[in-house]
Design brief:
The protein has strands spanning about 1-5, 10, 15-25, 30-40, 45-50, 55-60, 65-70, 75-80, 90-100, 105, 110-115. It is mainly β and about 120 residues long. The radius of gyration is 13 Å and the shape is globular.
Amino acid sequence: VQLQASGGGLVQAGGSLRLSCAASGSIGSINGMAWYSQALGKQREFVGIISSDGSTVYGNSRKGRFTISRDNAKNTVTLQMNILQPEDTAVYYCNVRAELGLSYWGQGTLVTVSS
């Protein structure tokens, strides 16, 4: 199973970025697809998750600015990030939760927001 994340980069404060993560391999049935962020020197933080039925839950710090969506046919999850702030600078990881309690992580993609 592989998770390939893409879309990170450098953006000015107030700007937007769109991250994508594609899952491939014998992953079976996917339940939740989530995003986490980890700033330098800090613990990994929950950004949000989307369930197989499309329902979403977001962490408090990004609620209202970030939107998660998924394409079940393509096993992809997307994170649309708007009104980015310097404090959003972090490595963003996708996480896929499959059947039997299995959990997979992507390699991370760096988002840098300049002030």
